[in-house]
Design goal:
mainly alpha, elongated
Length: 193
């Protein structure tokens, strides 16, 4: 542990973060070639999202939505300050990071739900099979296209997320990737906790 470090992200948030990244990658790259692995990874993603939503209300301080969900005006102001290289440092997620967490939770959840709908319609399996089994083929095709679109949108958001983490790490001279592994960040005076 480095001097003047403070615990920011608990073990659940860190394990969730890296597990979600791994499960999403597995689901994304297996797609149709290894359907059973794709489905298992998709269920893992859905389960992780459900747990994270719960933890967003009952978890530790910096894991709670109340700690990192900001009004759109605050997000816009933070992005503007960032572009001018004068954004303030936050101990937890900054307003843009909080908005990205929400965007990723929504797109990943919708990707999982549409995936379950496709699985139910085309394979007659999964929790949505009873609802989707009698649906016209066009509904299954629409769900498949939507599922692929959402998966690709999620991938774009992940790239933006990683770019934001790297940019913020450089701007504030801290290793945010290390912080998401250890859970600890340097504590500095004048930061927004």
């Amino acid at each position: 542990m480095m001097q003047n470090e403070i615990k920011v992200w608990d073990i659940f948030v860190r394990v969730f973060h890296w597990s979600l990244a791994a499960a999403f990658i597995v689901a994304y790259v297996t797609e149709e070639e290894l359907l059973s692995l794709h489905v298992v990874a998709g269920y893992a993603v859905a389960g992780l999202i459900a747990l994270r939503l719960l933890w967003g209300f009952v978890g530790t301080r910096h894991a709670r939505f109340s700690d990192f969900v900001y009004r759109p005006a605050a997000v816009k102001a933070f992005v503007k300050d960032t572009m001018q290289l004068r954004a303030r440092r936050y101990l937890g997620h900054n307003p843009a990071g909080g908005a990205m967490v929400l965007a990723l939770l929504v797109t990943v959840a919708l990707t999982g739900l549409t995936g379950m709908a496709v699985y139910g319609a085309q394979e007659l399996s999964g929790p949505l099979a009873p609802m989707m089994s009698g649906a016209p083929a066009a509904v299954g095709e629409f769900m498949e296209e939507t599922h692929e679109l959402l998966a690709n949108l999620t991938l774009v958001l992940i790239v933006v997320h990683v770019a934001g983490v790297l940019f913020s790490s450089l701007l504030h001279r801290e290793n945010l990737i290390r912080a998401m592994i250890t859970g600890r960040k340097p504590q500095r005076s004048g930061e927004i906790s």
